[in-house]
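Budget justification note: compute hours in this period were largely spent on complex prediction jobs such as the one shown. Inputs:
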Amino acid sequence: MHRPTAGRPESRGERKERTRRAILDAALELSGETSLVALSLRQVAKEVGIVPTAFYRHFDSIEALGVALVDESFVSLRAMLRDIRRGDPAFSDVVDRSITILVEHVHRQRSHFLFIARERAAGPPAVRDAIHHEIELCERELATDLARLPATDPWSAEDLRILSNLIVMAMVATAEAIMTAPPRPDAEKAIIETARAQLRMVLIGALNWQSRT
Amino acid sequence: MHRPTAGRPESRGERKERTRRAILDAALELSGETSLVALSLRQVAKEVGIVPTAFYRHFDSIEALGVALVDESFVSLRAMLRDIRRGDPAFSDVVDRSITILVEHVHRQRSHFLFIARERAAGPPAVRDAIHHEIELCERELATDLARLPATDPWSAEDLRILSNLIVMAMVATAEAIMTAPPRPDAEKAIIETARAQLRMVLIGALNWQSRT
DNA sequence: CCGGTGAGTGCACGGTCGTGCACCCGGGGC
DNA sequence: GCCCCGGGTGCACGACCGTGCACTCACCGG
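Corresponding output:
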């Protein structure tokens, strides 16, 4: 239960935080087999190596744990968005760069992305709501980024929202596809190529959009 | 346990089929609260009004039940695709017609669409695979439909696949949004308008696609 | 009419679940 | 140096879980 790993003193608060982390990690891993709604408090406790009732010292319920996992997962995801935003928004290769970064982050934070994809539709209500809210924030962020491009000057806020929504949903679907795909590298290559072409199609449509309507 | 509802004789096979239906209906309703993976055989049996062990006379496991529900759900969904395909594929209002039909079917077969959206990412492995396979078939169907349009004559099979994939994922996302949305009719209106605009953007992009590359 | 078949029953088992309660004991403020 | 706060323990409970087994009894084919 206690592993100072050396004569390190390790304060009270540090020990608590370490247990909390262990619970979050265990829940992320165990829920990967099925879903949060099929995860029992006792499984988590056993994996962590604490007695079931000690769980309540950190979270009120599995659902509350899930909300904390959502927060944590979206920290990864926002880091990804920051990476994508970094670098000039020249139109030429923005598509390739963005998808490359997406793929890289999906691999590096696989369990977080899997968690979001699963619980987005099947998690406990509070978790679902938290995820949808975060995704909406991502869409808004993307919309303000798009608004900064000169090509979108004549666009309405509504058009920006619609385009952002489309792009985000395509990226979510691509992330899901990558994670679902067999680990063969050619399968992933194909998914990436498809995503590239789709994103380009969407951007071409967007560029020719305002001219009508 | 037996409700002939009148002096109707009702054969052996009919009674069995009726119980099977009741099990499928109960599972569809009960799994709506959370997910298949959190659904117990005993809950289903109690809802149906049979003893738990009698469940095995109809399905080997909850997972097998889930696969049967996938089959059934996609019968609804194929009916929708048939509706959309019926009527001439004139380009002018194909977008509006398609989305109208989608919305109508989502409302009429709400529980089936909810089931697919949930279990697609979080269901038991066999259920997930079955759903992905069916969606892939839908994409192929759409691709062959698109191939019949004169505008796609110069397209490669690969391009058709990519576009179909994009359209289907947008429709899945739209269906999810409609079901998630509050029942206020104006919220649904907004989703529908967004979906229309997105589909038009995609089609505009597709029409201007082959000209480059 | 008679015998077999198979949907549904009743009971029992070992296991897991969430949670309440009294308790322990070591770090940290006084 | 003492005391208390709080993370972690141990136990017990009633409920629910999947499943095995022996059983009933109404149906249908012979």
